[in-house]
Amino acid sequence: MSEARGSHPPTLLTLVARELRAIGVPSRGQRVLVGVSGGPDSQALLHVMARLGDRMGFGLEACGLDHGLRESAPDELALAEALAASLGIAYRSARLSLQAGANLMARAREARYAALHNAAHQTGASWIAVGHHADDRAETVLMRLLRGTGPGGLAVFGARQGILLRPMIRARRSDVLRHLERHGIAFAQDPTNQDRRYLRAAVRHEVLPVLERYSPRIVQHLCDLADDVEALGLPRGQPGLGRVHLRSLAKAAAGGDAAARVALPGGAVARLDLRSGRVLVEPSGPPRLPRTDKPEKPDGR
After folding, report:
1. Are 92 and 119 in contact (CB under 8 A)?
2. pLDDT, tens digit, for every residue of 283-301?
3. Where are the alpha helices (DSSP H) in 124-184?
4. Which residues touch 97 (CB under 8 Å, ≥6 apart)?
5. Is the dihedral of CA 171, 172, 178, 184 positive or negative?
6. pLDDT(225) > 70
7. For the chain, which residues make up each domain, given as ranges?
8. What are phi and psi of 39, to 5 degrees?
9. Which of 189, 190, 185 is nearest to 47 (CA)?
């Protein structure tokens, strides 16, 4: 919903508070582990969550992760540790071990989330909060489209996935930067965010600016698309669930065939739950593909 003419846009604090109320967590007395890097997004998130923790009655811990890929990472994490100390938040850090090679960014992401889940278990935190915002989400939707994906691949960066929370997902990057400036919070810039050899940097600095010239609300539109796909309940990241399988299930639904199954690579099957309208992926049983022709006549045996 757009703001009334002459009114000020909601602050980052307001946007995060709204999102936490919308998803209904964390509860009073629970602990949240905030993943930090010293960058603008996580610095803003840590500061906002500290303010809201006092109001809403949840506790915080901060966890900084050094992927071992850049010499400047320890200095960047020092900014996160200093901010945590100024807010009275316990801070811990871990160094990950990643080898150079293919899919480095994907491997770094997987290692990061694994380390955060481990730290949450060690500290007794019920939730993990990370600093993704609306611009990150829009960029990821475009990246999935550019690389090729089925419909389920567009349901990226939900506000809550398991114990993972993205409280800033309704905020823009400009909201984050305004908050940092308003409160005088120091932050570091990851140089890879400017390196256009990486697809995300190219989308951020080249693709999105062009799209915004033709559609100033393109970030909102892409986020709305991700919300709409997420509401359909399509499995995220399910290998092999593509357009052909979804079209087959759609034919089955049109014919009222609630028992239709589509075999997927890896031994799973997909079926359409006609009550909820959701595509469900289950362990493999004898696959029964949606019928698209007339049944065969009995062979008389």
Report:
1. yes
2. 654 434 444 444 444 444 3
3. 134-147, 173-183
4. 68
5. positive
6. yes
7. 12-229, 238-283
8. -75, 170
9. 185
How many whole angstroms separate alpha carbon 75 and alpha carbon 187? 10
pLDDT in tens, 80-105: 999 999 999 999 998 888 776 667 77
Residue 213 in tokens: 């010239």
Distance CA 117, CA 115 (A): 5
The reported pLDDT for the residue numbered 51 is 97
Residues 109-130, mean pLDDT to the nearest whole number: 94
Helix spans in 32-98 (H): 40-56, 73-86
Thinking of the domain 12-229, which architecture would CATH place it in? 3-Layer(aba) Sandwich (3.40)
- The mean pLDDT value for 21-31 works out to 97
Residue type, 75: D
1 CB-contact burial (10 Å; exposed 0-12 / middle 13-18 / buried 19+):
exposed
Q: What integer pLDDT is reported at residue 148 of this predicted model?
A: 87
**CA-closest candidate to residue 129, choices 52, 33, 199, 221:** 33
Structure tokens at 173: 């990057």
| Sign of the dihedral defined by the CA atoms of residues 111, 126, 226, 11, in that order | negative
Q: Among residues 290, 236, 237, 297, which one has the least CA distance to residue 263?
A: 290
Dihedral of the CA atoms 8, 34, 199, 241 (nearest 10)? -100
pLDDT(274) > 70: no
What amino acid occupies position 144? R
pLDDT in tens, 243-266: 666 677 777 767 777 777 777 655
Computed over its alpha carbons, how large is the radius of gyration of the chain? 22
Question: Which residue, among 54, 215, 207, 226, has the nearest Cα to 137 in the 3D structure?
Answer: 226
Tokens of 127: 């939730």
Residues 6+ away with beta carbon under 8 Å from 56: 17, 20, 26, 28
